[in-house]
Amino acid sequence: MAVNRQTDENGKPIVVVGEDYSWVKGEVRDLASMFVDSESVEEIGDPSKFVREGSEVKLRFLPCGENERIYFRGLGWEHFYMYTTVFLDIGVRFPFTKFECGVLNQLKCAPTQIHPNAWAFIRGFEILMEYLGTTPLLEVFFSFFQAKGVRKGGVVTVNSMQGRALFGLYRQSYKDFKQMYIKVGCVEEQFPFYLDEFGLERFPLYWYSEPV
Questions:
Q1: CB 25: neighbour CB atoms within 10 A?
Q2: Residue 80, phi-psi category: left (phi > 0), alpha (psi -120 to 50), beta (remainder)
Q3: How far is the C-alpha of 189 from the C-alpha of 179, rounded, in Å?
Q4: Model confidence over 96-153: pLDDT tens digits?
Q5: Left (φ > 0), alpha (ψ -120 to 50) or beta: where does 116 sit?
Q6: Which InterPro entries did the record assign (predicted)?
Q7: CA of 8: how far to CAs of 79, 183, 187, 204, in Å?
């Protein structure tokens, strides 16, 4: 039985039994977060700035332990991981929209399991549909985009179908994005916004070994 050593939000070691991360690609397995203390997290800014307009969700950003990795599975629903560039540069807000949750569920990917360029495509598609006055649909999105790199144990990319490019690649520098991740959760007195009324995940919170 596999034993994986992790740390909680206070940096204290915990042990999760039964997890096997041998499928995770080496370049991901070795990358610790750049946000390992409260001071570095505070530099991101007030979490309320990244809440969707009209939402009553109250966020909290948490540092990651030095031995913690982005693909670790938590013991419950305390948090999920997020690349900071996705909400700082691309403009994704919390909570995710129904469409954004739908894409993650369709791909069977956690938010950090897909490349930030994929988030740029997702957000760009939503903005285009809003401009056209129509609802963004998964069927339409996946008629223009396809996932690549699944079942390789790394970050999944989303590319345009051949001859059906809607957008160019988002070319902001992503030199260190794989280490720029934090934990996102809600304040303790609020029901987690990433769960539905039945207590089920609205989208995959943690990495899956076999994305779709």
A1: 13
A2: beta
A3: 30
A4: 999 999 999 999 999 999 999 899 999 999 999 999 999 999 999 999 999 887 777 8
A5: alpha
A6: Transposase_28
A7: 11, 11, 16, 20
Mapped onto helix, strand or coil, the DSSP state of residue 21 is coil
Q: Which residues contact 26 (CB under 8 A, 6 or more apart)?
A: none
Read off the pLDDT of residues 168-211 as tens digits, 9 standing for 90 and up. Answer: 655 554 566 899 999 999 998 899 999 999 989 999 999 988 88
22 exposure class (CB count in 10 Å sphere: 0-12, 13-18, 19+)? exposed
pLDDT band per the 50, 70, 90 thresholds, residue 84: very high
Pairing relationship of beta strands 13-17 and 80-83 according to DSSP bridges: unpaired
**Region at 170 (left for phi over 0; alpha for psi -120 to 50; beta for the rest):** beta
Other CB atoms within a 10 A radius of the CB of residue 3 amount to 10
Please give the Cα distance from 54 to 27 (Å, whole number): 39
Specify the residue for token string 């987690």: 192
Structure tokens at 168: 């160019």
Dihedral of CA atoms 46, 48, 53, 56 in degrees, nearest 10, equals: 180
- Cβ atoms of 41 and 63 within 8 Å: the answer is yes
23 Cβ partners below 8 Å, 6+ apart?
153, 209
